[in-house]
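Problem statement: downstream parser choked on a complex file, so we are re-checking the raw output for the adenosine-5'-diphosphate run. The parser issue turned out to be on our end (a line-ending mismatch), but while we're here, posting the original submission so the record is complete.
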Amino acid sequence: MPKSEKLEFQTEVSQLLKLMINSVYSEKEVFIRELVSNASDACDKLRYLSNTKEKLLKDDPNFSVSINIDKKSNLISISDNGVGMNKKDLISNLGTIARSGTAHFLKELSESKTKDLSLIGQFGVGFYSAFMVASQTKVITRKAGENKIWIWASDGESNFTIEENEDLDLLPSNRGTTIELTLTKEAKEYLEKSRIESIIRKYSDHISIPIFITDGSEKKDEKPESVNSASAIWTRPKNKITEEQYKEFYNHVGQMFDDPWMTSHYKAEGKIEYTVLNFIPSSKPFDLYEPARENRLKLYVKRVFITDNCPELVPPYLRFIRGVIDSEDLPLNISREMLQNNPVVAKIRSSLVKRTLSDLKKKLSKDRKSYESFWLNFGPVLKEGIYEDFEKKESLLEISLFKNSKSKELISLDEYIEGMDKKQKDIYFMTGDSYENILNNPSLEGYKSRDINVLVLDDPVDSFWTSSTPLYKEKSFKSVTKGLDDLDSFDGKKEKDEKKENKSIDPLVVLLKEQLKDKVKDVRISSRLTDSAVCLVGDDNAMDPQLEKILQQHNQLNQELSLKILEINSDHKLIKKLAKMCTKKDEIIKISKIATMLYEQSKILDGEKPTDPALFSKSIIDTIYLSLD
Ligand code: ADP
């Protein structure tokens, strides 16, 4: 009697299984898609390994997936002659080691109202979908090149068993995996061969190895026929592929279950040859902002899968692209290390970037609405390229869209420039943590009143690229919250002179400087303000204030936050009154209290907390009280 070992599922897996078992989700058929997809991946992996270890394929060189239905015993099994698993693989892949997608999937489900379980494959936990239809799941497997057969079994409760087995006849091949499901009463429909055939055609036609189905009704000498087309879809001519087939392949290869937003299928012929079948999703993948910023492209060489982990293939700022690159020039036995400085890979990468950016540019000019939906999903990722890819900076800026202070529509830089007044030399922008906060910031007042458009940059990435991008089409980028504004140059001579000659304000400026000397770098009269009394702006030589804030939040700032400059509006009634009060000695104490309040409220408008909220609120109450006398 073989010894069986009992192991506990990791807590998250347990939760996931409970969800699967109790699901009332109607499209349970996706379990076939997931298990067939795993079977095909296992064959891809072994094909790759056999490039250097030919022995692994001996006696059984043709890959396939076989589905067997046993109505009497209520079983359906999915077998492959792929790479197989040993005990260690079983434990880590199917139960105990946290897979990054598990938690994400659970979170997504708890947040979504629809409980769309079909999304499961996207999170890399597709195997567990078996538990939607099975009361008992067995994984019988033998790793290619190893002798032992292992059986993993579970009813989806909190634990699973693993046992070694000597019976080599348990598997149809000398390697690979059989997933055997004992179907629940409600899942009897999956014992019908025609039902399974239609599911395969619906989801798995693109799988490049043949899929066979048997249920015992076949005649003895009947040659089995594969249910799917079993050829790599990207090798077929475009006009022979339907949109539905593209979508199905995208769902499989990209582990995404939306429609592709853009499909790009072409063969590059020249010094190097390769075929590309790429997709841009129409929704955000859950792991888009994981720190590793890995891409999900699959590299093939002459139809043989090599790796889905090739950072050199595409820059991180295009990591949302899904699909396949199939090269004719790389050697089949190329190792992952050899891919690192490979000139062919480098060439593919640069052509791929060029092609993608030019496709996006076309889409921007031809179908603006649709491009905007792409931009909302991936704009912030694409903008990482503006400071990471010096060569493509200009092309990326050209296809970037921006919120702005003048309209609710997104605009391009070219459109911004077109709308510039003759006197305006620079591209004005303001960074911040939200559109509303930026729009309400007093620093914008002077620009709004002079009808000057300002780009409203509310993505964290904006603070980075604006700090390293001096020019676009010879126009400089200029932050409206930094340095001296040049708004005077937009005004007539008379207005300018009036402001400059406003000597009556000078004593107030001196007083405020003295009062706030530890809090601000300077106090000066502003041209940016029209409605508010004061605002804070950054020093010209200081870092972008928003960038400072982000770096500080991530403990990456090696210095104190730099002191800002307090600008005051000499036309504001409060400032005028304070200036008058400055001339009276006994009013000075009052002004010093007001100075602190002005400073604190300008901090709030700048998106920060007051230095001492309790003191600040006490001062407000005192002031209100006094005003009621
Ligand atoms: P994913 O396939 O997205 O990684 P799954 O939950 O479907 O997530 O599978 C988990 C892991 O189990 C796979 O990554 C793979 O390593 C292993 N696995 C599943 N099915 C098979 C199979 N038929 N043959 C070999 N390994 C498999």
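For whoever reads this later: The radius of gyration is 32 Å.
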